[in-house]
Write a structure and sequence with these properties.
Dna Ligase, domain 1, Rossmann fold, 7-stranded antiparallel β-sheet, 7-stranded mixed β-sheet, flat
Length: 763
């Protein structure tokens, strides 16, 4: 593929997009065919007649069109017009049975009259005659969809799907599984071939099957098409070498004909969209998270407004920021013992952190002063009321001010927000505008994890649900991404020693920022760090191409998930799964997973059955003879001793726990799932009863929790615990979780989270 030819061709097409800015303009079918020719991808034979062609050119075209009919005696004639979306309804598609040019000329004359009754004359750009390509329509393995799409966040992606008139039907019938989405960045031929052969539907085209003992296509043919589109997408993307952006090209169908892949139809979009703007000085995130000085703007001297709550939280902080703390207030001399200055200019020096808790209307002036007077290394903008409230002009003005700061020597301050809750930096400070009696942030595990969330409310729920159990190194609410983005924080934590789990709740990526996120996720993986993402917004908004199938088959969420997973990111489908993954990855970090061979014990038969359906890639360990003999000796005769062990509710605390020890000690076991339904009276797992109604004592050395924790503390193997019963067993769960062990209330969730942990480690 000659990129110089491609570039010239796309730039020539883009003359139609001049003045359209970021708005995409449709390509017509002959333009798409020309692009396929430049890509050296085969298409149906076709000839184009311009709407303003003279009589001689029209006569020559009818001769060429008739020649395309061949032995079949048929040629397809279509109206061409980039704004004509429904050609058939306009009478602009006709199969012409012809014995010569006269038949084609008569058909063209009739189509012109019919189309003129349905569409404006200026909408007709010309006429296309296409020869028929021998193929079997509407038969599995014969028609494909091939598309290139420029995702606003993740850049060029190639979509391969089951094509033809039943494209959407296949998509719905397969639950969205009829397509393969491949990000173009770094895409290699071997990767494409593996993905195609592994796909449950697309492998029908390239692999021997009962339907096709000889595959319809050699896999190399399809790999060539995919990699050509990927290279085109990279070159003609919003940050590529091309002058314009090829937003989308879709071929549907591309048909199998005598071992060839031939395009029969195509649509496309081109625009002037480009990625612009300077990068943020990410090095400023360090003083943002570990400031030695701070100023708060918007503090009430009388009531507990958000600014005052933030000030109170800063005064309670463990870090050095409270020793150099200031308030900007036009009237007061001091608030809560903190000295006030009347304006930004009066600050005694440059602050590491400025917290702006002023309503949106006044935020622009505050940020302008901080930037122009170079009074802050970093800013947290708390209030909302910007683009999300219809005040996009105000948001853009703040963004422009920050960009001007970034363009100056030194790079100006970085900013988090607006519309954010703030930041909690462990052992440093808390700028959430929530009082500590509502959200105390008690000590817990998790100094190896960073939480980066677009939603402040989600951070609140996570912090409250895991209070005293998991306290991340940083909990960052980044809001509208008016300056710092989720990728900026990922870049920062890539270089922070001791942080090996980065959890990201993302509602949307800034344009182009997804591409950078993928690069950084790969970097993080290379450094032994795990990135876990929950991507909100699963509605398939799709591309903007009219008459495009790609939008419905490869919507925004599907593209995001495919791109993220291609970079080694673990993507959670639900919030429950997100938190399961976060606690498992965080608490088990650093433990070796070996081959992912799981040893499982439960005292309930239903759990042993259920877990078998949730192994999700875990291998069920086969106990070695020594372990099996030890289990035979430990467990009562009525227990099922092979993996998964069903020891039944009659097994007492000691043999249950000794079985856990034997499982984790086995050379045949890499990871453990230790589960019990604790309601049986044979297990000691309740807090001591002051009225002596039972003899159990959760705090005692012989309790189920105490014994299990000793066993797991001496084993290097990752293990999770399941306690499937009601609230009276919450104390047991909390004791185990406080020791840094992942606890689940359902065995299937435990198995899936442990399986994801093993996959992320390469098991």
């Amino acid at each position: 593929m000659d990129l110089t030819t491609i570039d010239a061709y796309v730039n020539g097409l883009a003359a139609t997009a001049a003045g359209a800015g970021d708005q995409a303009v449709r390509m017509n079918e002959p333009e798409v065919y020309g692009l396929l020719d430049a890509l050296e991808l085969e298409r149906c034979p076709a000839v184009f007649l311009s709407a303003d062609a003279d009589a001689a050119a029209t006569a020559a075209w009818t001769e060429e069109a008739a020649a395309l009919a061949g032995e079949a005696g048929r040629v397809l004639v279509k109206v061409v017009g980039r704004t004509i979306l429904h050609k058939t309804e306009a009478g602009g598609v006709r199969v012409v049975r012809t014995k010569g040019a006269t038949d084609v000329a008569d058909a063209l004359a009739g189509m012109r009259r019919t189309v003129a009754d349905h569409v404006p004359v200026e909408a007709v750009e010309g006429w296309l005659a296409a020869g028929f390509v021998t193929h079997e329509a509407n038969r599995p393995g014969q028609e494909l969809l091939l598309a290139l799409r420029q995702d606003p966040a993740f850049g060029a992606c190639v979509v391969v799907g089951v094509g033809g008139t039943l494209t959407e039907w296949y998509g719905k019938g397969s639950g969205g599984g009829s397509t393969l989405i491949l990000p173009a960045a770094g895409l290699e031929r071997e990767q494409v071939a593996r993905a195609l052969m592994a796909h449950p539907l697309l492998n029908l085209y390239c692999a021997p099957s009962r339907l096709y003992p000889e595959p319809p296509l050699a896999v190399e043919v399809l790999v060539n098409a995919v990699t050509a589109l990927a290279e085109l997408g990279r070159h003609c993307g919003p940050d590529g070498a091309s002058e314009f952006t090829l937003e989308e090209i879709e071929v549907n169908p591309a048909v199998v004909s005598d071992g060839r892949l031939v395009a029969l139809d195509g649509v496309g979009l081109v625009s002037q969209r480009r990625h612009r703007g300077p990068r943020r000085p990410v090095a400023r995130i360090a003083p943002l998270l570990e400031p030695r000085s701070a100023v708060v703007m918007g503090v009430s001297a009388k009531g507990a407004n958000p600014g005052r709550i933030i000030l109170d939280n800063l005064l309670r902080s463990d870090g050095p920021v409270q020793d150099d703390l200031h308030v900007v207030h036009p009237k007061e001399q001091s608030i809560a013992g903190v000295a006030c200055v009347p304006d930004v200019a009066s600050l005694p020096g440059k602050m590491d952190l400025a917290v702006v808790s002023i309503p949106a209307e006044g935020a622009l002036a505050a940020i302008t002063e901080l930037v122009e007077q170079d009074k802050a290394e970093s800013i947290i903008l708390i209030p909302g009321g910007f683009a999300e409230a219809g005040h996009g002009d105000l948001a853009r003005a703040i963004e422009d001010q920050l960009i001007r700061g970034h363009e100056r020597p030194g790079g100006g301050p970085v900013m988090v927000g607006g519309n954010c809750l703030g930041i909690v930096s462990r052992d440093n400070y808390n700028t959430f505008f929530l009082p500590d009696y509502k959200l105390p942030f008690r000590p817990g595990h998790g100094s190896n994890m960073a939480m980066v969330s677009q939603s402040g409310a989600y951070l609140v729920t996570f912090a409250s649900n895991y209070d005293g159990l998991i306290h991340p190194r940083a909990s960052i609410s980044f809001g509208n991404q008016m300056d710092l983005t989720v990728s900026d924080f990922l870049e920062h934590f890539c270089d922070v020693d001791g942080v090996n789990v980065i959890g990201c709740y993302v509602e949307g990526f800034r344009p182009g920022d997804g591409v950078r996120f993928l690069d950084l996720a790969r970097r993080a993986r290379g450094r032994g760090k795990q990135v876990v993402v929950f991507k909100a917004g699963k509605t398939a908004l799709g591309a903007k191409a009219a008459a495009s199938h790609t939008a419905s088959l490869a919507g925004d969420y599907a593209v995001a998930r495919s791109c993220l997973e291609s970079a080694g990111v673990t993507v959670a489908a639900t919030l429950d799964e997100f938190e399961d993954l976060l606690k498992t990855f965080t608490l088990l970090a650093g433990k070796p997973v070996g081959q992912g061979r799981a040893g499982i014990i439960s005292n309930a038969g239903f759990e042993c059955s259920t877990v078998m359906d949730a192994l999700d890639g875990l291998e069920l360990a086969v106990f070695d003879p020594d372990t099996q003999a030890e289990l035979d000796e430990i467990l009562p005769s009525f227990a099922h001793r092979s993996n998964p062990i069903d020891c039944t509710p009659m097994t007492a605390t000691e043999p249950f726990c000794e079985s856990c020890r034997a499982i984790l000690a086995s050379d045949a076991v890499d990871v453990g799932i230790l589960s019990s339904v604790p309601v049986t009276p044979t297990l000691d797992n309740l807090p001591a009863d002051p009225e002596n109604r039972h003899p159990e004592n959760l705090a005692g050395e012989g309790s189920q929790a105490s014994r299990m924790l000793k066993i797991m503390a001496t084993s290097p193997k990752p293990a999770v615990v399941v306690v499937d019963s009601g609230e009276i067993y919450d104390p047991m769960c909390r004791v185990i979780a406080a020791a840094g062990v992942p606890v689940f209330r359902k065995i299937d969730r435990a198995a899936r989270a442990l399986a994801a942990f093993c996959r992320a480690q390469g098991a």
